[in-house]
Model the fold of this input.
Amino acid sequence: MPLPGSNFKIVDPDSFTELANGEAGMVLIGGPQLMQGYLNNPQKTAEVIKQLGGLRWYVSGDKGRLDADGFLTLIDRYSRFAKLVGEMISLTAVEDNIRLAMDASEIDFVAINLPDLKKGEKIVVLCTTAMQPDNLRHSMLANGCNPLMIPNEYYQIAEIPKLGAGKTDFKQAKTLALELSA
Done:
């Protein structure tokens, strides 16, 4: 639930049209606590602060949905999506499908989206162990996985980049994937 004086709104991430309760979309946060903007960066401010219905809203970058009682459930981050041939593919869902197909929750890997001339973006996997792409593809398809979720490239690396708190450093992983893919 939002704090008193604050509000949530779930909208389509492209059109910013408000979605019905239960539908997943971009989480917007409204209220007096919103910042005025980024210092000396009106372009970045315009990306994250939207004026809708006479109110200012912060574009969180989170994907979520509201239930009938107004409780917010966060599902994913839009920055953790790849846009392939116009379809948004959750990289978290790709990772979940890989774990299921490999039947191994202990393997350390990360799915990253990179630019692709044919599809707009492609999915690249960085992994600390060797992967057999053909076997993985077959297993993912056998599990009913959307073919767009099947990674295009795989790279074995010594370790997945981590932040100080031990979480995956997605920015550094993307930089590494770009270097390996070049």
Observations:
- DSSP finds four helices and ten strands in the chain.
- Helices lie at 42-48, 91-102, 133-142, 170-181.
- The beta strands are 7-11, 25-30, 49-52, 55-66, 72-77, 81-84, 87-90, 109-116, 120-127, 153-156.
